[in-house]
Amino acid sequence: MAVPKKKTSNTKRDQRKAHWKRVAAKEAQKALSLGKSVLSGRSNSFVYPQDEEENDEE
After folding, report:
1. 22 membership: H or E segment, kind and range
2. Predicted TM-score (pTM) of this structure
């Protein structure tokens, strides 16, 4: 016979939510940092395709 599951406590729910938000905030910060680095032109570790027009002018 099927038995209902126990209710998740508010503490467990809040812990799960806080962990997800912490991980998401860390990834967002890394993405912002990488974007700033690419825009400044000082990026050495990120490779992205250059427009062909830019290569022709050089």
Report:
1. helix 10-40
2. 0.57
Q: Give yes or no for a contact between 37 and 29, defined as CB atoms under 8 angstroms apart.
A: no
Dmax of the chain from CA atoms? 76
C-alpha span between 47 and 44 (Å, rounded): 8
Distance of alpha carbon 16 from the chain centroid: 18
* CA 48/CA 38 separation, integer angstroms: 9
Residue in the block written with tokens 């992205």: 48
pLDDT tens-digit readout, 25-50: 999 999 998 888 888 877 777 666 66
Query: In sequence order, what are the residues at sequence separation of 6 or more whose Cβ sits closer than 8 angstroms to the Cβ of residue 46?
Result: 34, 37, 38
Q: How many C-beta atoms lie closer than 10 Å to residue 7's C-beta?
A: 8
